[in-house]
Amino acid sequence: xxxxxxxxxxxxxxxxxxxxxxxxxxxxxxxxxxxxxxxxxxxxxxxxxxxxxxxxxxxxxxxxxxxxxxxxxxxxxxxxxxxxxxxxxxxxxxxxxxxxxxxxxxxxxxxxxxxxxxxxxxxxxxxxxxxxxxxxxxxxxxxxxxxxxxxxxxxxxxxxxxxxxxxxxxxxxxxxxxxxxxxxxxxxxxxxxxxxxxxxxxxxxxxxxxxxxxxxxxxxxxxxxxxxxxxxxxxxxxxxxxxxxxxxxxxxxxxxxxxxxxxxxxxxxxxxxxxxxxxxxxxxxxxxxxxxx
Length: 293
Prior knowledge:
The chain is of the alpha/beta class and 293 residues long. 38% of the residues lie in helices and 22% in strands. Helix 3 packs across helix 10 (266-277). It is elongated.
């Protein structure tokens, strides 16, 4: 019996030993945590200590806002009066410069509207404000802001030439299927608009609006094509012209005026849009016409 007892006891002890959990292994030392690289701010520090977006910092650091504007005066948008540059576009440029706390300098080296866009695209100017509308050609090299003024499209028509062209057809039909000669300013948005809206017409390019109007008066072209403001000013300036010229405006065509910004200057674009949004008395055709009475 004793032998059996010892055997059972030993067996019991062995089972206990076999059943006991194995001693825990020592934990391996933890690897050191990876140190995240320091983030580099995309902002640029300007001389006064502020941190600004690179395109805004460029303007602040250079100490001026350079605005491209057509060399040829276009009142009431921009023109020299008594030795000073004035107009609605000039006011907007100065408003943007004031918001940046820098003076504005106007670059008027461009002799065509498209050349104004090229000045901005090449980086020679920070903005282009020059009675400019967005076109397919310009949209490939610059960005456009929100609209700050809307102008409807209009034709200044030579009555005699138009009567010959129209015959007995109703006016709307003739206008929409216009196949005569239309005068436009070369290298302007009106050249692109003319091709788009009057595909059957023959566009005749002139260097200035004054030359386009002269051609319409002389019958060299059947009509002159531009915005309603310019067309209305021609007749208003000389009521006797109503005997030889007539105007046609379009409710479904408009030319929104916008600011041009460099293709990479995305923060500047947002800034300009905000300045336009906060402009309480944006110009309209009505307000501009009143200002030039």
